[in-house]
Amino acid sequence: MAEENKASEQAAAEDQPETQSPELEAQADIETSGEAEVALEEPGALEQQIEALQQELAEAKDQALRTAAEAQNIRRRAEIDAENARKFAIERFAKDLLPVVDNLERALESVDATDESMKAILEGVELTYRSFSDMLERHNLKAINPEGEPFDPQVHEAISMVEAPGAEPNSVINVVQKGYTLNERLLRAAMVVVSK
Fold this sequence. Notes:
β4 and β5 (about 185-190) form a beta hairpin. The strands form 2 sheets. A 3-stranded antiparallel sheet has the order 1-4-5. It has 5 helices and 6 strands; from the N terminus they run αααααββββββ. With about 200 residues, it is α+β, with helices and mostly antiparallel strands. About 60% of the residues lie in helices and about 15% in strands. The chain has helices spanning about 1-15, 20-40, 45-90, 90-110, 120-140; strands at about 140-145, 155-160, 170-175, 180, 185-190, 190-195.
């Protein structure tokens, strides 16, 4: 009969939910109330955390803006470099062509226009010179012929200074060799004689 009592007590214990001992329950109550007290005792801690997170967010936004601006600047510089490469790709080639233009001009100046035997040659050289000049202008290569203008050291190269009673001082009285610009950039300075 004692065995039956033990079996019924075990069955009753199994049917009831598990409960903790009163000591463990008191310990759990103290821990939860301690957490609540910490949260209540330190209301500034949560605000400090919020401030720190807001500061981190502001720094991240600032960094993202700086990165985007830097990327835009790099893109803009690359576009400018590409544009300059297109504009000035023929610079070396154009410099090499300038002596040819100079020689054609000298040939036109040296031929006697009254000599009938040279008339056909003169016409051929004039046509060649005109077509060559047109081709240079199509590629934005423009001549600088500053005769009578004030001397500008940025685009003129003075090879001598002479007394010129009828000319203004420091003005170009003779162009020895024309200068040229390529897309508004100086390719070759004009060699000039300047009045004193």
